[in-house]
Amino acid sequence: MVEFSLGIDFGSNSARALIVDVATGTEYGTASCTYPGGTEGVYTDPSDHNLARQNPVSYLAAMEVCVTTALEQARKKAGFDPANIVGIGIDATASTPLPVTETLAPLSTLPRFENNLNAYAWMWKDHTSIQEADAITAAARQRHPEYLAKCGGSYSSEWFWSKVWHCLNVDPEVFEAAHTWLDFPDFIPVALGGVTDRAAVKPGVCAAGHKSLYCEEWGGLPDTDFLNSLSPELAQLRSRLYEHAFPSDTVAARLGAAWAEKLGLPAGIPIASGTIDAHSGAVGAGVGNGRMVKIIGTSSCDILAEKFPGELPDIPGICGLVDGSVLPGSIGIEAGQAAVGDIFNWFVSKVCDSDHKLFAKLGKEAAQLKPGQSGLLALDWQNGNRNILCDQQLTGLILGMTLHTTQAEIFRALLEATAFGAKKILDRLEEHGIVIREIVCCGGIAEKDALLMQIYADILGRKLLLSASEQTCALGAAIFGAVAAGRYDSTESAQAALCRFKDHVYEPIPENQAVYAELYDLYSELHDGFGTGNHAAMMKKLIVLK
Questions:
Q1: Of all residues in the chain, what percent carry a pLDDT higher than 70?
Q2: Could you write out the DSSP letters of every residue in 233-249?
Q3: What is the mean pLDDT of residues 345-358?
Q4: CA-based nearest residue to 154, from 169, 168, 126, 135
Q5: pLDDT tens figures, 173-205
Q6: What is the dihedral of CA 345, 155, 335, 467, to 10 degrees?
Q7: Which of 232, 281, 365, 383 has its CA 20 to 30 A from that of 172?
Q8: How far apart are CA 204 and CA 326, in angstroms?
């Protein structure tokens, strides 16, 4: 009898489902569905470019479509039987917290909040809580510096506590109506399992540790006294959250009767604790000691899972070091850039006022240029700097434009800028003793953009491998589903059986490396000058004027 695992991946704009043979990794069915509502599922506010919200109801609608479609596809293959799906794994963007009722239903399902964006899910790239994040950072530096040591030295406006606090400050009615808050990766197991009791929720340590300042060393979430110093209401909320968080091979719930009927699956299938989408992608791409996985999409995430013989070093500017967050038994390390694909989309759609067809033309023309030929240099901060400066108020910059500068030259400079930003992260990790022997790339851009991948290989100075699966996040989720179901005794053993790599490898080109080394020195001057030096306040003054 062939057994299967179902991985469901919730990205920024769509949900994807993948059904795999738990013994071989053979893919039997896959499908995706864009979130309904908003613009590709995202609700924004023209008066505030930092706002990005989503309706959690749309997550469930997209999930139903993509899972049932993947099942239909799988049924066409010999040997498939939905009754033989033994485990379900979940991944989702984080921190994307959403307020819920006492029975854990999204607050947005209540009629009085159905059109209130503050009652929606606060998407990971919502940066409306910059002031709250700065206040959390300042308070932690004074009272609990150990909190910041595990998240790169500052707390982000992308993360849980800053968003929840901002909700209190701008919409106390929503805050008061919320019995508790669930991060997106934890909401889906709750919904699928029909869980209605807060005490029965098993939150994943991935989102808890990387986004909510959870750490076993200091007793879980930040202590009540610290939260009370920020806001008494936050301190009160802590008691309605959770005491413990769990690795992603834990059974968080079992498929409830309602969703089993909707999806055409047997009730009772174990559902693994939710994990962050990028971390799940790293697992699906074979992350392990000395092997970094770089997920390149709208943003980027660099994920490692390291086993340290001694004490774990603190790494300034790296946004997360969490025990068990990627692979149980290893220290999960996360870094990344707040925008990569979003920068390219911005240039094509906003600046060039064109559609996706322009990408092919610009890519072809940019590929004809040699490194340095355009005379341009750019900073990749159009959505702020996540790492290593950890400053969401930094903005983009392009240096060297003349009356002869072309769209393709600017496009290539933007590609190169994201690669230089990636190298900054790599350098910081290595400065603190993290040995990175190889890099596996995955995500839509890595799959489709050979020019970008070659530029990354040249600038990072390493061979770049590609995951064989185009759905590494969903595959990682399926791996956790198989482990939670008891089909493997460890995540690593499941990876060894199910992860594959493509034959093509991107190798650095020596002559390109030489030119990029000079450009990287110039990029570093811009990076430090506008990020930390004399010009650091200039970008922020422009925001105030805006």
A1: 99
A2: HHHHHHTTS-S--B-TT
A3: 95
A4: 135
A5: 999 999 999 999 999 999 999 999 999 999 999
A6: -70
A7: 383
A8: 10
What end-to-end distance do the CA atoms of the chain give, in Å?
A: 63
| Contact criterion met (CB below 8 Å) for 17 and 69 | yes
368 residue type, one letter: Q
Q: How far apart are CA 178 and CA 388, in angstroms?
A: 34
Q: HSE on the CB side for 256, CA within 13 Å?
A: 13
Distance between CA 396 and CA 383 in Å, rounded? 8
> For residues 315 and 425, what is the distance between their CA atoms, to the nearest angstrom?
11
pLDDT exceeds cutoff 90 at 361: yes
CA distance 332 to 254: 26
Task: Find all residues with CB under 8 Å of 459, minimum gap 6, and list them.
Answer: 416, 419, 420, 422, 423, 513, 516, 520
* pLDDT surpasses 90 at 320: no
Spatial distance between the Cα atoms of 370 and 513, rounded to a whole number of angstroms: 11
Using CA atoms, how far apart are residues 498 and 322, in angstroms rounded to an integer?
25
- Residue 292, both tokens: 């970094």
Q: What is the pLDDT of residue 269?
A: 98
What is the helix, strand, coil percentage profile of the chain, to 5? 45, 20, 35
Two tokens, residue 117? 């964006």
Write out the two tokens for 349.
């759609």
C-alpha 323: how far from chain center: 18
139, 26 contact by CB (below 8 A):
no
pLDDT one-digit tens code per residue, 60-89: 999 999 999 999 999 999 999 999 999 999
Which of 273, 272, 208 is CA-nearest to residue 244? Answer: 208
Cα–Cα distance, 493 to 35 (Å, whole number): 34
14: cis peptide before it, omega within 30°?
no
Q: Are 371 and 509 in contact (CB under 8 A)?
A: no
Measure the CA–CA gap between 13 and 197, rounded to whole angstroms: 29
Pairing type for strands 291-296 and 438-442 reads parallel
What pTM does this model have?
0.87
Q: What letter represents residue 346's amino acid?
A: W
The pLDDT of residue 242: 97
Give the Å distances, CA to CA, from 417 to 36, 436, 487, 516. 33, 21, 43, 11
Interhelix angle 407-431/510-531, nearest 10 degrees = 80
